[in-house]
């Protein structure tokens, strides 16, 4: 049986099926099944023509296809209820075709010579293939539609090759070279996972592209050389069509080739050079006018062919050093061609734009724009990104000249020379727009050839004009120098409360004098009166704390979410017993309590709505003497104002009209100024025009305080509004945000951490940022509602960041801010952010993107979603979204990323991530098994924080042996390493030496399968900068205690150990750490159940937390914990009492018990002893979040009965 005869049989069957579709009997047929049967038969007919080639798995594939066809025939013709085959005299034909198919498969053998098919046969094959490509989307839409762009291009390429071969067969291309297409075929592996099938289809299309386009390039070369002079009309039409299709085909090929290089090739000079030339060609292919492309086709196509060859050479790992040097030289030659092509584009192919000065600075805050622009330019120069290399010289010139101009233009000079300052902003914006357009390929060609060079020249001319008009010495400011640090007053910042003594006493009486009576006491008044501060003071007052068994603190905004509010309250009330999610809150409960929750409001009607017994308290203004007291404390702390400043200071205080917020902010302004009368008079003159009768006037003071901040701090303050109102913001999280957004200005001789500390201190000293606790572990801050409003308005006005959700989808015409935060119930692939086909050019200009999907939803982005077009992103956070492998590879092409926070399910860090050379923060929630991060991670030299679920640096070869790490692999900038997993048998010393500046380590140590093996704790004393360690030992098979030999560095400040057996020696060794401030022991067994500390001293320990620690005897000496402030004991059931000697620790502030009812008596005894010795009831004792009072034994008994443990 020959394939030709079998194909003829199949064609006859297809004709019969088509005939059936047009007959009345079609009503009895399943038309979907008919279409699928047609496609299978068409595919089989095409596949038969590949029998000329020795293809792997040909017979197996044919057997599967034959079985599918047989099953479909049975379904369509034999189960329809009518004998259609008999009716149309096909009852013998169809079984005969099926039998012939099986016979062909069983008798088929490959030609001995594996002869290549003839050109005529290849034309026939391509014809059949084009039919398949046309019909495939009809039945596989769910697989093809997400990849339609690449699919259609693939179809166009096959059509081009078919047309070219027709010309050759017809002798229209006599002088052409011989071209034989080596077809490759593949199919998805068997799987039920639709995402996995889609990924395989996507991979196959990419693979076919990379294989078939080099053949297309050969055709393009022949057409632009050998066939150029042909007079044949058919050849002319073909070349015209080829030219029209070529830009899209070449562009897609170069994009895929770039992604392939990122995923497969290791970083090298040659690879970098190739990336640069690809960037240049992509700019041309994206923007070159169609009427000029035909003249450029030969050069672009030839360069693309050379690139294709060089990439192939780099992939060939067997090449020797000499060949690799040749490749490097060839890549350098390609770079030299860029300048030649730029000249030709400028003088031959493109026209100079008539006027490029149409762009005007679009926002209002010029200094803020200049600050962010200069930081951005500096980041680009230090980024080592290939696209930047095309314009690195121009970026350097723009940065240098704008820095000089900005250093001369102080606030006074901006006012005196408004027109010149406006021109500076316009040309700076023009330069920024040109740079960004080039980097994102958004009409970048004209920008590259004409507009950016023109902007550079404009800036030079303006610089010269600035020098002529403004004296170099007048108004010169040190933009890049950090101000002298203000004296740290963090412990009082935000906690200075003056006045309202009578009001405080009245409210406390109302709250505590009538037990059991439900009441709502509302505080009303204009913004800035201190309503929240007063409420918080009362909430923490000792008499209120003592009176109420359970308290909860929450804040509510104008746009309140009642369920979230109730969730906060319930989670505080129930403590550790049970945590509620928002979904746990019943709507009925929310309705019943809605009217009782809004106790603090500036609006009287809201307050009256919640009234029960008490009238709302209309909070008064501060009296003059109270205003001066608050201002003096804010500026001088515990000291007093010098006599020469008292008069002007008291005038400033009176001008603030008794508003605490205004006094706070003005105090922050003058605290930063020289302690001279002239400086204070300047502030007084500014205030004299303000009349504080409404929110708008208070906003003017916020603006004044903002204006007095150094330029470098202004964006840092504004970004506080990216957090919800009234939310406590962890200082560490805030620093990470500033760093990720590129807001940190690197200063010589200072680390990033030190600069960030300065930023926090300066904002706190300005009183724009409030802290409620001492600086240190877990410190948080917040900003006043009005400051938040000011920053939010400023952010929108200056186009810095915005928020949206599916109820307010982005329009394709929206002007995009620098950053976006999107809350989704479910990501929509049609949203313009994820779809490069949507025509919003501003999407490409995004610098920051944070997408949050509702907790608990397992979400994946579809294959129609892409990230590769977001080329300028510095920060990318995708929460609760599991990313596909293709999207992970696209992330590897976002070379500007500084912060990456993603969710995924993979066993290894993708190789493409090794290209993220600017990455500083990498956070991965990995839902799979342990993730191997070597070798990709070692290329990320700027990494400062790594947090990856169950990550390991150890990888194994095929023989199960650990791979040896290269000697020079180090991450010298790494400060934080979270969730590192390793075995207690691993040699970790070699790993940790590679992080010489590590400061924080969280790790999980797994036990051995054989419990008799000796185990080791890692030698951490090689890390001289290490300050925090949290280690968890897991060994399910271990039934006996292990002896641990700990080796911690002397720099350690915080230690958290979970699951370790502890001996007296090991605990004594920990006590000898001179800088240890926090010790947390969990799920531990102390050897002999006795902890004797009578001869042991913790020199600096402030906090001791014991959780599920198994020990019964505890001896503590007088000097064991002489600086201890906090003792927490949770679920230590074997311990019967707290040692009396804790009463002698003068620094002790609190004892917190959870699940330890047996320790209450001894805790109260210690509390009573402290009260007797000091005359103050200053030691706080809590049981399950309930305060215990030493002076009321009956109350203690009531609490013990009430609290379930």
UniProtKB/TrEMBL annotation:
Residues 502-600 form the NB-ARC domain. It comes from the Eukaryota. Residues 723-790 form the Disease resistance protein winged helix domain. InterPro entries: Apaf_helical, LRR_dom_sf, LRR_R13L4/SHOC2-like, NB-ARC, P-loop_NTPase, WH-like_DNA-bd_sf, WHD_DRP. Residues 855-1153 form the Disease resistance R13L4/SHOC-2-like LRR domain. One of its GO terms (biological process) is defense response. Transmembrane segments: none annotated. One of its GO terms (molecular function) is ADP binding. Keywords: ATP-binding, Leucine-rich repeat, Nucleotide-binding, Plant defense, Repeat. It holds the Pfam family NB-ARC. Belongs to the disease resistance NB-LRR family. PANTHER family: NB-ARC DOMAIN-CONTAINING PROTEIN, TUBULIN-SPECIFIC CHAPERONE E. This is Late blight resistance protein -like r1b-17. It comes from Nicotiana attenuata (Coyote tobacco). The gene is R1B-17_3.
